TrEMBL record:
Gene3D superfamilies: P-loop containing nucleotide triphosphate hydrolases
Alphabetical list of InterPro entries matching this protein: Adenylat/UMP-CMP_kin, Adenylate_kinase_lid-dom, ADK_active_lid_dom_sf, P-loop_NTPase
The protein's name: KAD4 kinase
Source organism per UniProt: Jacana jacana (Wattled jacana)
Domain Adenylate kinase active site lid: 38-73
Keyword Amino-acid biosynthesis: no
UniProt keyword Transferase, yes or no: yes
Keywords carried by this UniProt record: Kinase, Nucleotide-binding, Transferase
GO MF term list: AMP kinase activity; ATP binding
Length: 135
């Protein structure tokens, strides 16, 4: 997400005024598992996830048959360290937006269960677009 640090939030404040911030609270283990399951085809940048978007043949790119690799920062130990660092850096950002009354937090582990709530919030804040015929 963005902003990830207080410095980024302050820089963002200088160019626009936010009236809504969404925070997705996903359990640490869920994030670690999902990110650690990511594998990439280096030549094309195609990304696979062994849990919900696996290649047809494990460890092999669907289109070229070339080997997939797991990037160093996607290995479980690195992911855990990244998540801890993010949590520490993001805490003051979350507190800033909470103190302004514009933070809306959603918790869960599945996109299809969280999205309806996010969509309802956004629909209540953003007026619907009218087609040319309706104008």
């Amino acid at each position: 997400g963005f902003p990830r640090t207080l410095g980024q939030a302050q820089a963002l404040d200088r160019i626009c005024e936010l009236d809504l911030v969404i925070s997705l609270n996903i359990p640490f283990e869920t994030l670690k598992d999902r990110l650690s399951a990511r594998w990439v085809h280096p030549a094309s940048g195609r990304v696979y996830n062994m849990d919900f978007n696996p290649p047809h043949v494990q460890g092999v790119d669907d289109l070229t048959g070339e080997p997939l690799v797991q990037q160093e920062d996607d290995k479980p130990e690195a992911v855990a360290a990244r998540l801890r660092k993010y949590k520490d850096a993001a805490k003051p950002v979350i507190e800033l937006y909470k103190s302004r009354g514009i933070l809306h937090s959603f918790s869960g582990t599945e996109t299809n269960k969280i999205w309806p709530y996010v969509c309802t919030l956004l629909s209540s804040k953003i007026p619907p677009l009218l087609s040319d015929e309706e104008n």
